[in-house]
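To illustrate the input format used throughout this study, we show a single complete record. The first block contains the structure-token representation of the backbone; no residue identities are included at this stage. The design step must infer an amino acid for every position from geometry alone.
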């Protein structure tokens, strides 16, 4: 017969898993609401993007659009931990909450020197934002566009140059877990120290090369579930 402590822990784990499930369901419901209610807005944004790209002569720093995330036959470890703090502790990764550096728009080429953290989690940024999706290394959008996506509640998953291609495939499979909803995946070429990082507005999860094992996926999952769509500006 299970001890009282074991029964208590089992109930706690079940509650956390249910809460995580409800957050994921709520996130998907928001996506449907945004799609149904924002068709006109999306059309306007698309027109603006076309005009901006045409006026820029193609010099957007990326050189190509994103792809849709795919699991590509990759199977990630099943989720074991549903609490953010517990998952981060188990993974050895680092969760931080950098201060808000502002939300101004500037039409300039932004670099890591413009921000207090690398990768950045807030601050002035380019007026246009990068699209959701998976970017090939040579097509990473400009940093100013990537920071703008954080303001819109996106989760940006990024990795260092030279990262094992198998790990990159797993990161893409992770993005595909929620159909790529409000997420970007790209190679960070700015010299960031962690091997893998997840960022959103004023929130950062960083994992070093020795912290990319099975436990990292629960850290990424709980970070995504907790912070997606929490930016100061809501955009479909």
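Output of the design step:
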């Amino acid at each position: 017969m299970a001890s009282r402590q074991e029964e208590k822990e089992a109930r706690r784990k079940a509650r956390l898993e249910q809460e995580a499930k409800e957050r994921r369901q709520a996130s998907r419901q928001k996506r449907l609401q945004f799609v149904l209610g924002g068709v006109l807005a999306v059309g306007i944004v698309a027109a603006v993007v076309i005009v901006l790209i045409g006026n820029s002569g193609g010099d957007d720093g990326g050189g190509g659009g994103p792809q849709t995330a795919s699991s590509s036959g990759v199977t990630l470890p099943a989720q074991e931990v549903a609490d953010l703090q517990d998952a981060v502790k188990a993974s050895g990764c680092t969760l931080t909450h950098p201060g808000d550096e502002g939300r101004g728009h500037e039409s300039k080429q932004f670099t890591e020197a413009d921000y207090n953290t690398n990768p950045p989690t807030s601050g002035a940024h380019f007026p246009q934002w990068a699209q959701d999706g998976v970017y090939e290394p040579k097509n990473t959008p400009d940093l100013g566009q990537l920071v703008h996506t954080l303001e819109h509640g996106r989760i940006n998953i990024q990795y260092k140059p030279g990262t094992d291609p198998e790990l990159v495939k797993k990161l893409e499979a992770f993005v595909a877990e929620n159909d790529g909803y409000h997420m970007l995946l790209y190679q960070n070429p700015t010299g960031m120290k962690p091997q893998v990082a997840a960022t959103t507005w004023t929130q950062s999860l960083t994992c070093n090369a020795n912290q990319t094992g099975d436990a990292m996926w629960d850290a990424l999952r709980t970070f995504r579930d907790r912070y997606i769509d929490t930016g100061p500006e809501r955009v479909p």
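Structural context for interpreting the output: The beta strands are 94-96, 133-134, 155-159, 183-187, 196-200, 203-207. The chain has one domain: 4-227.
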